[in-house]
Design goal:
single chain, alpha/beta, 2 domains, 8-stranded mixed β-sheet, 4-stranded antiparallel β-sheet, 11 helices, binds adenosine-5'-triphosphate, binds iron/sulfur cluster
């Protein structure tokens, strides 16, 4: 089993809109191992949020899981999440085994309810019977562990600052100690100092053993570099590169990764030396993705084969890259 926590194999998940297929996740495979923080980056529309929903098997119309396998490894058992009905996922998997800090903290908590009542609602989806005092005590402890006053659970979300609210969402998402946590752009709406605080909170979750592994989704390489050991780069519904973080910053292999690293406004110091570069063109419409390599219309290194055949992820030492140059 090789200490895997979650494994996605050849997953395809498409949005079906008026009989058209938007190929948002197309033959994607990814391993998440115990103890690992994996960063997932890519431009807007590259499929990051859809991959998040695939990892959780939170598949709702118009999204459809076309094929592939999503396996959760738990206490020596392999659970094929893609074969489990939604009600069972809701009851036995989400919150307990896998969990998510969603993009918008404000919407994650019911604005009209005190936080404690939102917590009790969530717990009712997991347990037939709940012991209110036990849950409230547990929530108070988790809030304090995460650096939020325990009294915050008796407040309404709008009474808390942005950073406190985001940390309250983190506390709720991790209340049952899920082994695998996805953080979907958890710092994007926050100012720089609050971002740092929230990032530290997420780092502490693993250090304190509250969660085992984390997938951190973001546009921002500088942010993810502070927390993840492995970086996954997505382009147009596919993973194009997977690499240890420092190696990819030092030497990106895929032409898209190079573009992504060299085009940021405030590049990392190592990247700055190589100069800023803008990737021409725009990502494709995923209803009609280009044949061959999906990046070929924008790639200055393209070969004839790139327009016809699709590059698969190839292992190069401890890295993986999907490009015919390798
Ligand atoms: P962002 O960083 O902007 O959140 P993303 O990388 O998370 O983007 P997704 O949101 O997963 O990308 O979108 C992948 C593709 O699926 C895009 O082409 C997007 O337009 C499409 N898509 C996303 N949600 C829907 C939907 N509900 N209906 C139809 N198409 C959708
Ligand atoms: Fe460029 Fe070809 Fe590599 Fe795609 S496969 S990134 S088009 S060189």
């Amino acid at each position: 089993m090789n200490n895997l926590i979650l494994q996605v194999e050849n997953a395809r998940a498409y949005y079906i809109v008026e009989n058209n297929y938007i190929r948002a996740i197309d033959d994607v495979s990814l391993d998440i191992r115990e103890g690992e923080v994996v960063g997932i980056v890519g431009e807007s529309g590259s499929g990051k949020t859809t991959l998040t929903n695939v990892m959780l098997m939170n598949i709702k119309k118009p999204l459809s899981f076309i094929d592939g396998k999503v396996s959760l490894f738990s206490n020596g058992r392999v659970i094929e999440l893609n074969k489990i009905p939604r009600e069972e996922l809701q009851k036995n998997i989400w919150g307990k085994e896998t969990s998510i800090i969603p993009q918008s903290a404000m919407n994650a908590l019911m604005p009209t309810k005190r936080i404690k009542d939102s917590i009790l609602d969530v717990m009712k989806t997991h347990f037939e019977e709940i012991h209110e005092k036990e849950i409230i005590d547990k929530a108070k402890t988790r809030f304090e562990e995460i650096g939020v006053s325990k009294d915050a659970i008796f407040r309404y979300p709008f009474e808390l600052s942005g950073g406190m609210r985001q940390r309250a969402v983190i506390a709720v998402a991790t209340l049952l100690n899920p082994r695998f946590l996805i953080a979907d752009e958890p710092t994007s709406a926050l100012d720089v100092s609050t971002q740092k605080m929230v990032l530290k909170t997420i780092q502490n979750l693993r250090e304190k053993g509250i969660v085992k592994s984390i997938a951190f989704i973001t546009h921002d390489i500088a942010t993810v570099r502070q927390i993840a050991e492995t970086l996954v780069v997505m382009y147009a519904g596919k993973i194009v590169e997977i690499s240890p973080m420092e190696e990819i910053i030092r030497e990106p292999l895929h032409p898209y990764t190079k573009g992504l690293l060299y085009s940021v406004v405030t590049p990392e110091p190592e990247v700055k030396k190589r100069g800023v570069y803008h990737i021409p063109g725009a990502p494709p419409n995923l209803m009609y993705p280009p044949p061959g390599c999906r990046f070929h219309p924008r790639c200055k290194y393209k070969l004839d084969i790139c327009k016809k055949d699709e590059p698969k992820l190839k292992i190069i030492n401890n890295r993986k890259v999907a490009c015919f140059l390798y």
